[in-house]
Design a protein that fits this description.
The complex is a heterodimer. Chain A is of the alpha+beta class. Helices cover 23% and strands 24% of the residues of chain A. The longest helix of chain B has 16 residues. Helices cover 33% and strands 16% of the residues of chain B. Classes of the chains: A alpha+beta, B alpha+beta. Chain A: GO terms for molecular function: iron ion binding; oxidoreductase activity.
Chain lengths: 703, 167
């Protein structure tokens, strides 16, 4: 096996590493940045969908007369009259093409009208008839029809096994089941699109998308269009967290509608309620974790077995236990993933799919092992630190700095001295405790990225790539990378992103953006300088593709340590988090200002998952009952007190020319475990099911 | 049913005819092209649509346009004069109190409205002394800003920005 680590040709950092203010800050604080639904168009048509009211069955009739009779209604589409699509390769996009219903809420029709109000009113007047078939929408790990998917999300193998977990010598064993709920991404901007069928075969979409080329490709395939005549524009995106990473049914419905009214732009924004069935969610998980260790806390066996759900319509297999393949090492290891195929909406990416739920179970189990061994949880982790990646045997690109993160975090947080005894610190009616957990997230580098650099008459460099900024800071950070790659000030760079007419770019997902797009920008800048030197003529232009993998054979992962202090009300079970700290090792930080916001934002989403978030799916009907912000609470300002993030000053010399590894997701990973571990320290109650709501404490002996 | 109304939006007089079912938010966004207020939930649960309505912060998705004939609406756009930002907007940039930016115009309007409420001595749920002057502690700011959700998690930076302006 090769273990050679090739050092890449790093940039000289001038703009990179500077905490520049957001380039798009002014137009965002004034509300002038145009999001998808806000692009000015003339004579728009408004679309409101009709959704299935059965969880499984067939449409047997559609009475649209009353809707069509309403003044202002332009058309009502159902499977009977909708334009035909070409490819059903993505079943999620196969909308109004058949009578089959695979989940409650599936689109079965659409009203097109002159105004929003009329469209919505008319949609209520459409009467669909159904043949209602028995459905199955309940995830139960005891089901006898669980199956092993061929492969997991992001291409990971479904199962792994090494040694014999059951026969491993053990002075101490933790053998527990952990559960995480269905969660919804809920970006603040609802998924929205304006679709214009300009002439046959020519499609323009103003979209709220994490990947303009990905959406373009999906729709071109589904509708049999030439991708060169499909344009997807997403200059500003109000968050996505994975849910805008792929084309979903609403895209297809909007295109069908646009085909029905050629020449008129069709505006379609999902309601908050519709987002709970249309644009993906994090699958609920049931995770059986077994850790065996010697009396001094050295792991002899790690087992992490997961049951989760997928949809009858389309498979999504979350890679929940993958983190347990590489976090710590033991001679006997086993991971597995089993799916229940249910009559439910299609699960998909939500910030750190796999790692976020998986590291909750794994890192609470480690805390339980620390308690059982009588060890400090930081010391337990340090004792089980692998020298090389347990999966591949390769060294980590840029080194593995988990223990440094833990020790630095302990110093900053004031971890020591810590009395490990649970349930003994009381401040009035509040029980107080602290907890720690580790974080990890892989460095993903996606293929298919190309950038163009052009010298313009105003003496600036246009840098073109179809990347997007979903709040991550791309408008700022990619310009910083371009500036250093061209060796010019940031002000000399005019970045153009968010349009599929720009050079091909991969999706803003998997924390891959800066690595993938940045590598292409650097390659284009270097090609430009190689061809034109320092004094290019106006109009000079060069393009290049990002190299596949610059650094040779290594494992590429980021690590982190999360610390939380909690206060649990002894009378009500309310959990408050007065303080959180994350310390991360993620390679070079491109922009400390936007990076800190991203780390903190991830941690807050982790806090929200720890304490608040749960989509309650009623298995009798197959719909999410709490489908709005009143009942699906996400952390609000009052829930978040003192949260800070720090990072190790480092450069990963093997990852890419920026020395960075991506930071969009690691902040959420481990945060719920740190809070759950702190709740145990505060109360002595070990909550293994998220979210940690008062009932879970009150019914486990708090009172 | 349609009604004719006049709104004064960011200093401009705008007359229009609206379906009586049209919310103030949809009238602004879809009829007048005023898109600084955002639609995040359409149920008054997220605060993205917040503007200053006759001087007070209000969620425009939760009120009908026809009920506000003659009203004065100030959006985040109108708080700035061209590129000259309102102090709250400047502080949001200084403290990076935003990421995706979708909730931001609502946060900014809410902050401006909230600062005026506190200056007028209005108590909140966490105000210890119900009468008289309100001291805008971090706890007060967080409580008073909790009607504006931010999924990116910019809250600590938003609080820092408002704290600076309040000082």
């Amino acid at each position: 096996m090769t273990t050679e680590l090739v050092t890449v040709d790093l940039l000289h950092f001038h703009a990179i590493g500077v905490p520049l203010e957001r380039a798009d800050g002014t137009i965002k604080v004034t509300g002038r940045a145009p999001y998808a639904f806000e692009h000015p168009v003339t004579e728009p048509v408004y679309l409101h969908p009709v959704q299935a009211t059965v969880a499984r069955g067939r449409v047997t009739g559609a009475d649209t007369a009353a809707a069509r009779a309403l003044p202002g209604v332009i058309a009502v589409l159902t499977h009977e009259n909708a334009p035909r699509m070409v490819s059903g390769d993505d079943p999620e996009l196969w909308v109004l093409q058949s009578t089959e219903i695979a989940f409650r809420g599936q689109f079965v029709g659409a009203v097109l009208a002159e105004t929003l109000e009329v469209a919505r009113h008319a949609a209520d007047l459409v009467r669909m008839e159904y043949e209602n078939l028995p459905h199955d929408a309940e995830l139960d790990p005891r089901r006898d029809d669980l199956y092993a998917p061929d492969v997991l999300n992001a291409g990971y193998p479904t199962d792994t096994a090494e040694g014999d977990v059951d026969a491993a010598p053990a002075a101490v064993t933790i053998d527990r089941t952990y559960r995480t709920p269905m969660e919804h991404n809920n970006p603040m901007e609802p998924h929205a699109v304006i679709a214009l069928w300009a002439e046959p075969g020519e499609l323009l979409l103003y979209d709220s998308s994490q990947g303009v080329h990905r959406v373009r490709g999906a729709l071109a395939t589904a509708f049999g269009l030439d991708p060169g005549r499909v344009r997807v524009v997403s200059p500003y995106v109000g968050g996505g967290f994975g849910s805008k990473g792929s084309a979903h049914a609403h895209h297809a419905l909007a295109v069908l509608a646009a085909q029905a009214v050629p020449g008129r732009p069709v505006k379609f924004a999902l309601t908050r309620q519709q987002m709970f069935s249309q644009v993906g969610y994090r699958t609920p998980t049931v995770q059986h974790v077994r850790l065996s260790a010697t009396a001094d806390g050295r792991l002899t066996a790690i087992s992490h077995e997961v049951v989760e759900q997928t949809a009858r319509l389309k498979e999504f297999a979350e890679q929940t236990a993958v983190c347990s393949r590489m976090m710590y090492t033991a001679p006997n290891r086993r991971t597995s993933h089993r799916l229940a195929r249910l009559d439910v909406p299609v699960p998909a990416w939500m910030r750190a799919p796999g790692e976020a739920p998986g590291m909750f179970a794994a890192e609470v189990a480690m805390d339980e092992l620390a308690v059982a061994c009588g060890l400090d949880p930081i010391e337990l982790r340090a004792r089980n630190e692998p020298g090389t990646d347990p999966v591949t045997g390769r060294p980590w690109s840029g080194g593995r700095h988990l223990v440094e993160c833990l020790r630095e975090g302990a110093r900053r947080f004031g971890w020591d001295p810590r009395d490990p005894t649970p349930g003994v610190r009381r401040d009035g009616e509040w029980l107080v405790g602290t907890g720690v957990a580790a974080s990890t997230y892989p460095r993903h580098l996606l293929p298919g990225n190309r950038a163009t650099v052009r010298y313009t008459p105003d003496g600036r460099y246009s840098v073109l790539i179809g990347a997007v900024d979903i709040g991550t800071g791309t408008w700022t950070t990619l310009a910083q990378i371009a500036a250093d790659a061209l060796e010019v000030p940031v002000g000399a760079v005019a970045l153009e992103i968010g349009d599929s007419d720009l050079p091909q770019a991969s999706v803003a997902g998997g924390s891959s953006g800066m690595s993938s797009w940045g590598s292409a920008v650097v390659a284009a800048a270097r090609a430009f300088r190689a061809r034109y030197g320092e004094g290019p003529p106006v109009g000079a232009e060069a393009s290049a593709e990002a190299p596949a993998e610059p650094g040779g054979d290594f494992a590429a992962d980021s690590f982190g340590a999360q610390f939380a202090e909690v206060r649990v009300n002894a009378d009500t079970g309310e959990v408050r988090v007065p303080r959180m700290l994350g310390v991360f090792s993620a390679g070079k930080i491109i922009n400390p200002r936007t990076a800190r916001s991203q780390f903190i934002g991830g941690m807050i989403m982790g806090l929200s998952a720890a304490l608040h978030e749960e989509s309650v799916l009623d298995p009798r009907f197959g719909h999410v009952v709490n489908h709005d912000f009143a009942d699906y609470h996400i952390a609000a300002c009052a829930d978040v007190v003192d949260i800070d993030a720090a990072w190790l000053e480092e450069v990963d010399p093997h990852a890419n020319p920026m020395g960075s590894r991506g930071i969009g997701e690691i902040g959420i990973v481990g945060a719920p475990a740190a809070i759950a571990n702190a709740v145990h320290h505060a109360t002595g109650i070990r909550v293994r099911d998220l979210p940690i709501t008062p009932d879970r404490l009150l019914t486990h002996g708090l009172l | 049913m349609d009604e004719s109304i006049t709104l004064h939006v960011d200093g401009r007089k705008r007359s229009l005819t609206v379906d009586t079912r049209t919310t103030l938010l949809d009238a602004l966004r879809e009829r007048l092209g005023v898109t600084a207020p955002k639609k995040g939930c359409d149920h008054g649960q997220c605060g993205s649509c917040t503007v200053l309505l006759d001087g007070r912060r209000a969620t425009t998705c939760l009120t009908l346009a026809v009920a506000h004939d003659g009203a004065e609406v100030v959006t985040a756009d109108g708080l700035a004069e061209g590129d000259s930002l309102h102090p709250v907007q400047r502080a949001f940039l200084d403290h990076d109190g935003l990421q995706c930016g979708y909730c931001t115009p609502g946060q900014v309007c809410s902050a401006v409205g909230m600062l005026a409420e506190a200056a007028a001595g209005w108590p909140s749920h966490v105000t210890r002394d119900g009468a008289g002057r309100v001291e805008l502690t971090d706890e007060e700011i967080r409580e008073r800003m909790s009607g504006n959700l931010c999924r990116c998690g910019a809250y600590p930076n938003i609080v820092a920005a408002i704290r600076e302006v309040a000082r």
